[in-house]
Amino acid sequence: MKKHIVAIGGGGFGKSNSSYSIEKYILNLSEKKYPKICFLPTATGDSDTYIVRFYSIFTLLNCIPSHIEFFKRTTDIHNHIMNQDIVFVGGGNTKSMLAIWNDWGMSSMLNEAYNEGVIMSGVSAGAICWFTSGITDSWDNQLRILPCLDFIKGTCCPHYDEEPSRIPYVKKIIMEKKITSCISIEGGSAIHFIDGEPFKNVSFKNNKNTYNVFLNNNDIVESPYEKIQL
Hints:
The chain has one domain (4-229): Class I glutamine amidotransferase (GATase) domain (Rossmann fold, 3-Layer(aba) Sandwich). The protein has seven helices and 14 strands. It is of the alpha/beta class. The strands form two sheets. The chain has an eight-stranded mixed sheet, with helices on both faces. A six-stranded mixed sheet has the order 7-6-8-9-12-13.
């Protein structure tokens, strides 16, 4: 049984110009005709607009969509998560999302489901949450390094080419040796992990990349991962 995580740097069904190719890629990983996929919109405070957007797209695809809310009456989380084929975590405030999850015991439930073969995926906050740490804008004054779930070892930065502060911040913290390397995902791309190891960069817009950014002889290196172009 392989364990899959697909971390999306930006874009996807939350954007009106999406082709839904990355969503189809994630659904196809289940190898089921109608996989069950659960949306976690916690990072936006369970935004109704985001939830409606999720259903408006995934009801058109071959799957059985559902979601879990924490700001209204909450379902039996453990049974629901363990009964899924795929979990998709939305973007938003990562720090607040993790705090709410920890209070509900969600982090350990997701880990149990992951180890049982449930595919984990998500965008932005839903990308970095799976790593040891992530680069987040949960605070409005500056980017910071945030401890995350540690399903995958290392640090992750989404929106690498989409927000002007991202590239210089990643280079700065590597030069300062606050981290040794960073998996940096451009918008329109995702990094697919199998059993905790990077498999391929999945580009769902033209020529978008994921890089392993690290220091070599005092020079910053951006090494792109092997790519699948959807």
